[in-house]
Amino acid sequence: MPQSGEDAAQRRPAVEERDLTEQQLGLRQAEERLLRDYIHRLVKQSPEYPNYQYSCKLCSVHIENIQGAHKHIKEKRHKKNITEKQEENELWALPPPSATQLKAVDAAVREVAAQQGISEEDFKVRETVVTRMEEVIKRHLAGGSLQLSSL
């Protein structure tokens, strides 16, 4: 399918790769790899860290050069933060539960509550408390919620 000149121009790098020296091309490729690990080149030098060229957005650290960035990527802290970020991204990508799924969870919770000896009246009281607390939380923390638990 033919592309318009504007579409092609948007996908093309600002500087053609053939115009770059081998060293510049290697630097560009290294920085593209760093971006996947949440390490960005500093656009503006920080007065606190004048010799640092990069920043890890995940770990909130400044990094002096590419070698330091590669060393940082191998650190336990960064690996842990990457794993947590990937898990967070996976959770955000999940679709919301369907009405059928919600009903099934509700039925399972009620069945466990009955097995554990909680009365329907006690369950209603707890449900009311959760609802009231959730209203308070939502007023102070947008997007906050509570879940009824037997713990």
Automatic annotation (TrEMBL):
<dbReference type="InterPro" id="IPR045100">
    <property type="entry name" value="TUT4/7_NTP_transf"/>
</dbReference>
<protein>
    <recommendedName>
        <fullName>Terminal uridylyltransferase 4/7 nucleotidyltransferase domain-containing protein</fullName>
    </recommendedName>
</protein>
<dbReference type="GO" id="GO:0016779">
    <property type="term" value="F:nucleotidyltransferase activity"/>
</dbReference>
<feature type="domain" description="Terminal uridylyltransferase 4/7 nucleotidyltransferase">
    <location>
        <begin position="84"/>
        <end position="148"/>
    </location>
</feature>
<dbReference type="Pfam" id="PF19088">
    <property type="entry name" value="TUTase"/>
</dbReference>
<feature type="compositionally biased region" description="Basic and acidic residues">
    <location>
        <begin position="8"/>
        <end position="21"/>
    </location>
</feature>
<feature type="region of interest" description="Disordered">
    <location>
        <begin position="1"/>
        <end position="23"/>
    </location>
</feature>
